[in-house]
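Write out the 3D structure for:
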Amino acid sequence: MSDNPVGAIDASAADAIDVAEFIDRQPVGRFQIGLLLACAAVLFVDGFDTQAIGYVAPAVAQDWKLARGALGPVFSAGLFGLMIGALVLGPIADRIGRRRIIIVCTAAFGIGTLATIFASDVPSLMTIRFLTGLGLGGAMPNAVALTSEFSPHRRRATMVMAMFCGFVIGAAVGGLLAAALIPAFGWRSVFVVGGVVPLLLVPFLVVRLPESIRFLALSGRANEGVAALLARISPSVRYRAGTRFVVQEIKLPGIPVVHLFGGGRAWATLFLWALFFMSLLDLHMLSNWLPTVLNDLGASVSAAAVIGSMLQVGGVIGTFALGKFIDRFSFRALALIYGAASIAVAAIGFSGHSIALTTMAIFCAGFCVVGGQGGSNALSATLYPTAIRSTGVGWALGIGRVGSIVGPLVGGIMLARQMSNESVFVAAALPALCACLAAFALSRVAAASKSPEFANSAGAMTTASAAGPVGTAG
């Protein structure tokens, strides 16, 4: 990916530069890749800490002598915290910026994960996981929004999905690391690692993580910052004094959530919420209970963690592989992916006691379910303008977290009632099928819209003027 601009705007002669158009006309360069990797690092530790409780659950249950399914409320408490974090911190970020929220959330869930080692019973574990979830829930929507706003339109889904791979890889590494650490150091050692790493990441984010360029331009309060960031995207471009930077989007006043239903976005928002609800219900039912089900089938705690991590390994490959497909076919691609997911999830229950078949089915389920969720994250950012992008992504994830709370509870109830594996996984396939239908409905809504993005709804143009020339920041 070259740093040489393709069709770059001649800033020395231009009276105004449209920030979004400028980014869209540039290749993906070192600066955007660095930003993607920084956000991916945040999601790596986010994914590790979110999924760690599922991998250690069999060991915790044995240590505390708990009944089968007793940790379901713990899973849901953490996910409830994720939901509240996404719902509350998304709108706050649209007011104060993505960067601050990402840094604060990373520090918060690092401290919370480290505090998990002091839990001594189910109620204390529930409380700590809820508080940790607040930070975990606020990080993802803002990382998605930030990456999206620095990405050219033609590569946006690919870049956001590549960034989301950080979450999936972190979740997969959590399983592999749990398999190695638990036999040697006990289940608490997993949370020591999960707490220390994000705290070490915070200073790096403070120094290197930029604020959203579209957020800065829309605010009109950071003129030199906008010019400096554009110079980092395309180092060869110079800006003369008086250059204006414009964002052709409306600056929306009032309560951000209300605007999710304005500008022709109401049906898109509702279908998007349904998609996230069903997708995350399925994903968290599988990720939280697969190690326990595998352990019940005779696999050791370590083996169950490794085989269960194939869900995330498949998700990593699926997220990378599906990016261009989703960039080209948008929600129609998602509908096909979730349709395939329903078949793969059901197949897990019919794999019997064959480790090879079970592992293959789990891998395929991860490829489709996790890969589909990555695509959903990427496309959700394209539905909303800058002023409400973190709110839109955050509320979609927040509503999805309701599904992620329901999923582990339903899984726990089915296991407690001694339902057969075939019945459990056929039931788990139904949410994927519903997500398929929601994605298909979204494709119809998008096709009916005059624009492929609802972000371009009519509104006033907000501008910012550069205070003076900007050098060639690299």
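The chain is about 75% helix and 0% strand.
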